[in-house]
From TrEMBL:
<keyword id="KW-1133">Transmembrane helix</keyword>
<dbReference type="InterPro" id="IPR050400">
    <property type="entry name" value="Bact_Cytoskel_RodZ"/>
</dbReference>
<feature type="region of interest" description="Disordered">
    <location>
        <begin position="97"/>
        <end position="129"/>
    </location>
</feature>
<dbReference type="Pfam" id="PF13413">
    <property type="entry name" value="HTH_25"/>
</dbReference>
<feature type="transmembrane region" description="Helical">
    <location>
        <begin position="134"/>
        <end position="156"/>
    </location>
</feature>
<feature type="region of interest" description="Disordered">
    <location>
        <begin position="190"/>
        <end position="224"/>
    </location>
</feature>
<feature type="compositionally biased region" description="Low complexity">
    <location>
        <begin position="211"/>
        <end position="224"/>
    </location>
</feature>
<keyword id="KW-0812">Transmembrane</keyword>
<feature type="compositionally biased region" description="Polar residues">
    <location>
        <begin position="112"/>
        <end position="122"/>
    </location>
</feature>
<protein>
    <recommendedName>
        <fullName>HTH cro/C1-type domain-containing protein</fullName>
    </recommendedName>
</protein>
<dbReference type="GO" id="GO:0003677">
    <property type="term" value="F:DNA binding"/>
</dbReference>
<keyword id="KW-0472">Membrane</keyword>
<dbReference type="InterPro" id="IPR010982">
    <property type="entry name" value="Lambda_DNA-bd_dom_sf"/>
</dbReference>
Amino acid sequence: MRYYEILKKRRTDLKLSIQDVSAQTRLAPEYIKAIEDNDLDVFSDDLSFVRYFIRSYCEALGVNWSMLQEEVDGSIKHYAHLRNMALTQAQKRMAASMPMDTNESRVRRTGRSSYQNRVASTSRSLSRKPRRKLSMKAVIIAGIILCGGFGLWAGMNQIRASQAAQAQAAADQEAKDKEAETARLAELRRREQGLDNAQPEQEEAPKVEDTTSVSGSTVTVTSTFDTPPEVAIEAKFSAPSTVWLTEAGAVLNDTSQYTDSFSQTVTMNAPGTLLFQPAVPEGMKLTVNGQTVTPELNENGEAIITIEVVQAAGAAKEEAAAEQGEQNEPAE
């Protein structure tokens, strides 16, 4: 897609008219239309400002000028080349249509007598020195004219460069305002069409992580139960031992195995209590969810570790409120 097609599509996507863009860029509407139609004949009087007009148009629509700059410069150069070729062809046609010189003067000279030839030769010899003076004056005058023309050309180039710099400075100064104005107009159009009626998305509440705390032989795992919490139990014994891991009286492991290490993860779907009891607690190294547990031995030399899985206070209130709301809903 060519650069002028991109600009036109961007304007129509933003639902902006040529008059809207003209108000932002301060470019005449016919210039904006000429840019979208790639009609550079409109700018044929002076092509030096075309790229600045197109850059101003890009900034007003929020289009990346650097991505289109190379194509725009190439298009302008191609148009200038075609125009120069047409001018050269026109000059050649004019030169071909001009009448050719004839040899009439030579014919007249050949018809002179010898007396006339001597008089002409004497006249040329007498007027040779004044002709040299006139020739020198002509050289001086031509030099003055050339210097004046060069100075005029340099001055015009300096004026054009100054005008181009001023246009660039003005474009840079207004770039931010144009972008903001474009966004404002687009927002205004969306409001007119009722596109801003969508409800804002509610921010998700930050997720509360599960926590594990240890106090003597009691381990507390606090969870919101957004997802079922896991209780990972790791133990190493000084001598082979059997282990009982129970929940509400139900044994969760194979108690017939004697081993010097134990590893099991229990997924809790609801709050509850786990009991972990090794047969040989002496020298045992125990961790629950990575937390080190140092159990206390009772009077019988036994160690019973209680693992309580509870629901976080905030989550419990929200669940109770939800249940209360369901109870208050009228039956259909």
